[in-house]
Design brief:
The structure is a single chain. It contains eleven helices and eight strands. It is of the alpha/beta class and 280 residues long. Helix 1 runs parallel beside helix 2 and helix 4 packs parallel to helix 6. The longest helix is centred in the middle third of the chain and has 23 residues. It is globular and about 45 Å long.
Length: 280
């Protein structure tokens, strides 16, 4: 099970729970020190040292490199959890020219998933599909996503975050349409509001985090992630969940035409062709 954004927050909490249950976990994170600490925590929980890879999702060349390494070193990937996310300033685009929040939360995961498509297909059997689990958010409701130009500059970090979360749901819907026939089940989930380092640069988010009844722990937030990674009840292609139950999304995030348009524009944005292979 490959988990991005697994050096902290719900990604690490999910990795710990899965390792404790006996699953082989592969960690992927941005900060070397946090990633090294996460390896120790997961080792202690599961009794074996997890493989770990470093990549900054704000740099698509690093995503390409880590995707090639993962595909080369893991013949089969049964579960890919696209959990990496951030809430970044809109003032400066990434080196790839995109809004940093949308790139990290959507475009990078979109690229990585395509690069790992063959190991996912290799892991899928008639009785046990491979799974793609993407961390979404109720913030999709206020996203200002331009499906023709997903990486365009946003007016604020929160609008960018909402746009990226709309993209997560739309990606899940279109991935299910395309890949479910190959035995791959994509799903998406909302973990709730989580007490973690996420959003710590936002004064409003940090203030809200002081309200104990509003926010959940990382372990509580990871419960649906773990459920979707393992439970047969989570095998709903294109499903969107929260608290281990179906969860509603806005019409803009579930529109099939928007999902197809976003897919095509995302392929162009990250340098992929329809076959899912890197453009040469």
């Amino acid at each position: 099970m490959v988990i991005t954004g697994s050096s902290s927050g719900i990604g690490l909490a999910g990795a710990v729970a899965l390792a404790r249950a006996g699953d082989e976990v592969v960690l992927l994170g941005r900060h070397p020190e946090r990633l090294a600490r996460a390896v120790d925590v997961v080792r202690e929980a599961g009794g074996r040292t997890p493989a770990a890879y470093r990549a900054d999702f704000a740099v698509l060349d690093e995503v390409r490199d880590v995707g090639v390494r993962l595909a080369g070193e893991h013949e089969r990937i049964h579960v890919l959890v696209n959990n990496a996310g951030q809430l970044a300033s809109v003032r400066r685009p990434t080196v790839d020219g995109f809004d940093p929040t949308v790139q990290t939360n959507h475009l990078a995961g979109f690229l990585l998933t395509h690069l790992l498509l063959e190991p996912l297909r290799a892991a899928a059997t008639e009785g046990t599909p491979a799974r793609i689990v993407t961390t979404g958010s109720a913030a999709e409701a206020w996203g200002t996503l331009d499906v023709a130009r997903p990486g365009r500059r946003q007016l604020s970090r929160w609008l960018a975050y909402g746009a990226s979360k709309q993209a997560n749901v739309l990606f899940t819907i279109e991935a299910a349409r395309r890949w479910a026939p190959y035995g791959i089940v994509p799903t998406c989930f909302f973990p709730g509001l989580i007490r973690s380092g996420f959003g710590r640069r936002s004064p409003a988010f940090s203030l809200a985090g002081t309200l104990p009844l509003l926010f959940r722990s990382a372990e509580e937030g990871a419960e649906t992630l773990v459920w979707l990674a393992n439970d047969p009840a989570g095998l709903v292609p294109g499903g969107y969940f929260a608290w281990q139950r179906p969860f509603g999304a806005t019409g803009r995030s579930t529109n099939a035409r928007r999902a197809q348009a976003l897919w095509d524009s995302s392929l162009a944005a990250v340098g992929l062709v329809e076959s899912g292979q890197p453009r040469r």
